[in-house]
Amino acid sequence: MSTIADRPARILVIDDEPAIRRALNTILRSRGYRLLFAEDGQSGLASAIDKSPDLIVLDLALPDRSGLEVCRELRSWTEAPILVLSVRSEEADKIAALYEGADDYLTKPFHAGELLARVHALLRRAAQLVSPPPVVRSGDLEVDIARRRVTLAGRDVALTPTEFEILSCLVRNAGVVVSHTEIIEKVWISEVAASEPGLRVHVSNLRRKLEPATGSWRFILTEPGVGFRFNAAPENETRDVRASQAVIRQ
How far apart are CA 202 and CA 196, in angstroms? Predict the structure, then answer.
């Protein structure tokens, strides 16, 4: 029951209450799960990056930052199921957590049987998914989605938050054409700030930072009239800059 691909499932618990951590340790270890613990949001995020848990149990009331904020950040780069475990029982709190990416919500105090059933169900569904790696490499370009770090030939590349979100959206779908509309919906919260011409400007700025001055694009390719595609094998495919620029001007 506790295995994913023939190994014990790893569960990260992000909760600052010692009594809750002890209870979860007793209940979940008895079923063969491996437990990891963090007492605040920042250390929880770091553990999620370094340990790649199969499931995350998250409290909403953390000492250093909002659990909703932690949930949102986790969901921006990992597909691991998130079970919120909180004393907050209001419908609004549950809805907010689910909107931020939580997969399930259980209120404290809880029954061990219900907790185990929910954990088992979440892990069963997660075993059917293939999560994108938090670090994507393409030639000499490395995009660390979790740490929001981009390097080119070993050197850090400074991107604006919007540029990083666009690049992250593309690398998550490496090799697949992502339409202009899809990128805009994923990157921009405000519809006022979102536009196709604006997207093209940001992509142009990205290319200036990522592409060598060789007359060809290796990483972000334009699919005329549709959108953009991240090239996972830049040594096998390039696009002539002048030809693509002519398309963009149309």
Answer: 10
Distance CA(245)–CA(250), nearest Å, equals 9
37 to 89, 189, 225: CA distances (angstroms): 24, 32, 48
* CATH number belonging to the domain at 135-249, selected among 1.10.10.10, 3.40.50.2000, 1.10.10.60, 3.40.50.1000: 1.10.10.10
pLDDT digits (tens, 9 = 90+) for 155-206: 999 999 899 989 988 988 888 899 988 888 888 765 545 678 889 899 999 9
Q: Is 102 left (phi over 0), alpha (psi -120 to 50) or beta?
A: beta
